[in-house]
Amino acid sequence: xxxxxxxxxxxxxxxxxxxxxxxxxxYIIKIPLISYLFRFEDNxxxxxxxxxxxxxxxxxxxxxxxxxxxxLYTLNFGFIEIGTVTPKPQDGNPKxxxxxxxxxxxxxxxxxxxxxxxxxxxxxxxxxxxxxxxCSMKIGINIGKNKMTPNENAVDDYxxxxxxxxxxxxFFIVNVSSPNTPNLRELQNKNxxxxxxxxxxxxxxxxxxxxxxxLKIAPDLTQSQLDEIIDLQHEIKFEGLxxxxxxxxxxxxxxxxxxxxxxxxxxxxxxxxxxxTSNAMIRYIRDKSKMTIIGVGGIDDEVSAxxxxxxxxxxxxxxxxxxxxxxxxxxKIGLLN
Length: 337
What we know:
13 strands; three-stranded antiparallel beta sheet; alpha/beta
């Protein structure tokens, strides 16, 4: 059934299809008993003092502005990441900026942290929390810096998002690994990360409610860069990593026409093609550390999800696999131990 529905929505440009799909879903779930189709038994797991009803999460980028919180809750995700949010609203990169690479079950995006800013997100989150005070879906907030903020001042953007949204999140993710904001990945070096993460951990130490803090990393890091990040986690004790973001390595695409891909322009690749790269990085981290790992990249069925758990991930996130495989994927992942 989903394959038929997907073929219809794939007639539209990818970014437009996303908006149409989620807007229609807002109305569909108002039909009596529809929400029961997405329910399945809880499969609880506790990570960093948070008990999740299942291990199936949604990666950042799908709901940048918290516009679909109720809809995602209905789909029975154990947790979601909203954002990436920046202090000021920004349009992101020019459209088109999201493309399907159907032969590889992949996406290419260069969104560029398009979002309505933290004030808009804060209002939506407050409203949702008021309407759903006992929400069983945990909400992580993925924070970033504005494009026009120079890297030397980046810490200010992360601090502002963190402080203003602290009480509304269950956990936070620092995003320094998107390939679509100029020079952002330079913040993955140890000195810059130390500056940002120390500032956030200092703020957390003064809060009444403790919230886990994670760092999202790129799959394109060198081994020495990854070693530095692992050493940094041992040093300052943030909770762990979200591994991994999209990749800029076009060699991962085995079936797509290189000329067509090159014509699409710059952007990060996600989907089935980065599974092995992501898993290898997770396995490397787990061999060297007991930190929490939220595994993302290439999950599109139970086998790929289990491979990520076997590599050492504690929780799982989907995005591109959700687009290609549909809501049934949530249950398949959610029931894994």
